[in-house]
Amino acid sequence: xxxxxxxxxxxxxxxxxxxxxxxxxxxxxxxxxxxxxxxxxxxxxxxxxxxxxxxxxxxxxxxxxxxxxxxxxxxxxxxxxxxxxxxxxxxxxxxxxxxxxxxxxxxxxxxxxxxxxxxxxxxxxxxxxxxx
Length: 132
Prior knowledge:
Number of helices: 6
Mean pLDDT: 83
Largest sheet: none
C-alpha cells in the first residue's frame, strides 16, 4: 500500500529548509504563476527593488538556471506574492522591507545564477510597468 505524503502547509512554503522539496517547489511555482504579475504590476512603481524581483523572476523561468537555484528563487517569489507577510505591505515606507531583505539575501547567495539578460529584461519591464 503506498504511503500518502503530507499536504504542503503555508509554513512549509516559507521554510528555506524545505524550499527544494518537490511538492513545495510545485506549490511555490503555482503561487508565483497566479500571483506574480498582478502584484508586480501594482507595486513596481512603489518599490525600489522591483528590478531585483523581476530579475529573479526571469532567472527562475530560464531553463538554463539550475533546478536548486530555481527552487530557492520560487520560494522568494512566493513570499513576495503571499498576502500574509511579516510586515504587511499596506504600511507605507516599511511594508516591503521584509521582501527587500529576502531578495537581497537571495541575490547575495544565488546572484551568479542571475545573468545579464535577466537583469536587462527586468530593467525593460520595470520601465514599461512604471509608465502604465
